[in-house]
Amino acid sequence: MGYKAQFHPGTSDPSKNRKKYMDPAYKLQKIRSVSDEDVVRVLGHRQPGEDYKSVHPPLEEMGEPECPIRELVEPTPGAKAGDRIRYVQFTDSVYFAPISPYQRSWMYSYRYRGMDSGTLSGRHVVEARERDVEAIAKELIESETFDAARTGIRGRTVHGHALRLDENGIMFDAMQRYVFDKSTGEVKYVKDMVGEPVPAPISVGKPLSENELKTRTTIYRADGITIKQDAEVLQMVQNVHWERSFGGFEPFKEAKF
Amino acid sequence: MKIRPEIQIFPFKLISKETADKITDELTRFDFVTNVSVHGPSVNSNENENYMVGWIWIEVEDNNEDVQKIIKDVCDEFLPFGYNIELGRFTKYKKGVSDYINERV
């Protein structure tokens, strides 16, 4: 009998979306296309077409010591070439963003190798070798986990995930990295991740509608689907809370919820 | 000293400076409005200092139903996405201790 991972409890929409994103067998839906060059420009770590800077020679030239683990684990393309470590950081609005930082961490852990992710309340940073970062960033920006209005690519001055949206429904950004083009209805990046201007605006497409976002989100909210509507999720949260609070204190006693 | 009441407008979306200016212009036309102040997070676009508005405080001579109705009409026109109205005192109207120390007014 094969064991099939559930990834996340529950049957509600946010729960289903969480399961989807965390399941590495599920291919993220591609809803927009951004060229490789534009991804490099938004990240701002190097100029498009510029060589990758390296911190060590390619692994093949280095003559690695004999090691069963090294034989077992295939290095990522970036590690093979000796790239620098670079990062990409996303901010997710609390207003029904398609994904939130904590789920990003779960999702990345199931999907990507050779990366280090950091979760904060409103943003999520992932560090990896430069060409791996570019591949990860491209996949994420093009996929359904990115919304033009509720997700931001921000290296610094990330503040704004919990602020009210602006009149066009765009998440607040103090550096105004992206602007809403009223004539086309698209969101365009006019600055890179750290706020340096880019040569030409980079379009990331139209924001999704409120209803569409509510079906795609992984966030439980009082004005959407609350966590109380999903008994299994609530049970898990209470379990975790109990385990954390008591941490094995008097284990002979049954947990009371 | 008469302490005038203030009416706070809390829009459900952060509004642009331009929209806030329109509301301010509309409100300051009325005699019963003695002061309108706005507050919100600042943004830097193209190196220009700019800000978005999240709170509007309207100081009025006297708060009554007519005044509130007029203010609500103005808000309905410019804030179609909704807002909250609250009555109280939200900005400083006299010197505080630190103002005396710093010799600010």
Automatic annotation (TrEMBL), chain A:
InterPro entries assigned to the protein according to its UniProt record, in alphabetical order: Me_CoM_Rdtase_Fd-like_fold, Me_CoM_Rdtase_gsu, Me_CoM_Rdtase_gsu_sf
Signal sequence, start to end: none
Metabolic or biological pathway, per its Swiss-Prot or TrEMBL entry: One-carbon metabolism; methyl-coenzyme M reduction; methane from methyl-coenzyme M: step 1/1
GO biological process, one term: methanogenesis
Its EC number(s): 2.8.4.1
Region Disordered, residue ranges: 1-20
Keyword Transferase: yes
Cofactor(s) of this protein: coenzyme F430
GO molecular function, one term: coenzyme-B sulfoethylthiotransferase activity
Source organism superkingdom: Archaea
Keyword Transferase: yes
Gene3D superfamilies hit by this protein: Methyl-coenzyme M reductase, gamma subunit
Any Pfam family hit: MCR_gamma
Reaction catalyzed: coenzyme B + methyl-coenzyme M = methane + coenzyme M-coenzyme B heterodisulfide
Record keywords: Methanogenesis, Transferase
Record-stated family: Belongs to the methyl-coenzyme M reductase gamma subunit family.
Binding partners and assembly: MCR is a hexamer of two alpha, two beta, and two gamma chains, forming a dimer of heterotrimers.
Xref: NCBIfam families: met_CoM_red_gam (TIGR03259)
Designated name of the protein: Methyl-coenzyme M reductase subunit gamma
Organism: Candidatus Methanofastidiosum methylothiophilum
Lineage, top ranks: Archaea, Methanobacteriati, Methanobacteriota, Stenosarchaea group, Candidatus Methanofastidiosia
TrEMBL record, chain B:
GO aspect biological process, one term: methanogenesis
InterPro entries: Me_CoM_Rdtase_D
A Pfam short name: MCR_D
Keyword list, A-Z: Methanogenesis
Protein name: Methyl-coenzyme M reductase operon protein
